[in-house]
Structures are given as structure tokens and as C-alpha cells.
Write a structure and sequence with these properties.
Helices cover 9% and strands 55% of the residues. It has one helix spanning 2-22; strands at 41-53, 64-70, 73-78, 81-85, 90-98, 101-109, 117-128, 133-134, 145-156, 160-161, 168-177, 180-188, 195-197, 201-209, 212-224, 227-238. Strand 2 (64-70) and strand 3 (73-78) form a beta hairpin. The longest helix has 21 residues, at 2-22.
Length: 240
């Protein structure tokens, strides 16, 4: 059981910085984040991506391949070039995953388990020229590259679009209920009730490119003069 425990510990250590950003009430120390910029790209990050490789298998979508065990090390190929690495060594690659999509993998080897080689680390996926379109349901994604639990931490000023969505944060609305004044965030682009209170959840699904789909699971962490702070995760699917 020791190898399994070491892998779990390794992944949990990688996840600690993300937890402070993604759990309501656990805001990281230091100054408030600057507004999340909008531009020609959007980048999704997962600090604790993990995948288990059988001999001969690639990390999905990449040129990172586990070849076979070699004594106390592992033969791997990076961009077709073979090298022997050991547990804890880097396993790094960046390149085009699909049209309009670039991946950056900063992984490390862990310890062989049941004949397979687990790798874990940080992954970033950048989408070029996203054009969000909201969808009621997502198409079949069984053949897609899948990236779960991409960490989201957005600060959206009033009048700005929530990155990667068709929603816009219009501003603060104050409501008086039972003699108490509460602040809510008003969104445009929603069907139905357009307000979020602090702690409320927000889900959005849609298409970023013809070959890229996303599902956001967010929560309103704070609503103030700086903007609407949204934290949570996104699941991303890239059609090769």
C-alpha cells in the first residue's frame, strides 16, 4: 500500500494551493486579485492533473510516452526522444492539442503501481480566440481529451463578461428583506432569475470553439465594489 499512499500524498500536496482558491471561505492571504483580463485567449489550469500509464501508452494528447521499466528507472520518450528517468523526475511537454488549443504539461513521475506508471503535476490548456456559445446540453464527448477540475478564480468588475461564458456581471443590487439590506450580483445573459447572493452557485455549459466544450461549476465568493469574485472548477473537453 505504500506506493499508493505516496501517490495520493503527492497529488494532495499539489492540490493545496488550489484549495485555497476554490473553497468558499478559504481565501488566500495577501492582496485581493486583480480583475481577470479578457482577451484573445483563455487559459484553464489544473495543478493536480494525474494519469496512469501502461507500457507503450502516451499521456493523452501529448508526446509523452512511458516505454518500459529499466532497473530502478523508467524508459520514457519525450517528443520521440528516449531517456531513462526515475521517480520524482520531470516529465514536461508543450504543444498543440487540437486546432486552436495549446497544452503545457509540467508533470513528474511517481512510483510504479501494478505495472503502470502514474504521472502527476500541473497542466495548462490555452484556447485561442474563444467564442462562447451557451448550450442546454453538451454533445457526445467520448472521443475528446478530458480535463476535469480546472481551477477557476475570477474577479469580474461590473459591466464585464465572465470569462469563457456569455454572462455579464451588471453590478450590485441591494435588497431590503426583513429590515436587513443584502447585496446581490445581477447577471445578464441568464434565463430566469438573474441574481446571485454571496455563497450562491452558478453553473454554465457551452462551446468555446467548434471543437472545445466547457462546464463551469462556480460559486460567488464575494460581491463588493471590486467586483464579483467567482471560484470553483471547470471541466473541459477538447475534440482532437
Amino acid at each position: 500500500m505504500k506506493p499508493v499512499r505516496s501517490i495520493v500524498t503527492f497529488i494532495l500536496l499539489l492540490m493545496l494551493p488550489a484549495l485555497a482558491c476554490s473553497v468558499p471561505g478559504l481565501e488566500p492571504a495577501g492582496p485581493a486579485p486583480t480583475p481577470t483580463p479578457l482577451g484573445d485567449t483563455i487559459t484553464f489550469s489544473n495543478p493536480a492533473y494525474a494519469h496512469s500509464l501502461a507500457p507503450g501508452v502516451f499521456v493523452p494528447g501529448t508526446r509523452l510516452q512511458y516505454v518500459q521499466r529499466d532497473g530502478d528507472g523508467y524508459q520514457v520518450r519525450i517528443d520521440g526522444q528516449q531517456v531513462v528517468k526515475r521517480a520524482g523526475d520531470s516529465f514536461i511537454w508543450s504543444g498543440v492539442l487540437a486546432p486552436g488549443v495549446f497544452g503545457n504539461y509540467n508533470l513528474r513521475l511517481t512510483t510504479l503501481v501494478l505495472g503502470n506508471l502514474p504521472v502527476a503535476g500541473a497542466v495548462e490548456v490555452t484556447i485561442f480566440y474563444p467564442n462562447p456559445v451557451q448550450l442546454e446540453t453538451l454533445p457526445d464527448r467520448s472521443a475528446a481529451l478530458t480535463f476535469n477540475n480546472m481551477v477557476i478564480n475570477y474577479l469580474v468588475p461590473a459591466g464585464r463578461q465572465i470569462p469563457g461564458t456569455t454572462l455579464t456581471y451588471a453590478g450590485i443590487v441591494e435588497q431590503n428583506v426583513g429590515g436587513q439590506t443584502t447585496k446581490q450580483a445581477q447577471l445578464t445573459g441568464l434565463t430566469g432569475y438573474p441574481y446571485l447572493a454571496t455563497g450562491d452557485s452558478l453553473q454554465w455549459r457551452g462551446r468555446l470553439l467548434d471543437n472545445v466544450y466547457v462546464l463551469y461549476n462556480l460559486r460567488a465568493l464575494s460581491i463588493n465594489e471590486d467586483g464579483l469574485r467567482l471560484v470553483g472548477t471547470a471541466d473541459l473537453w477538447v475534440m482532437p
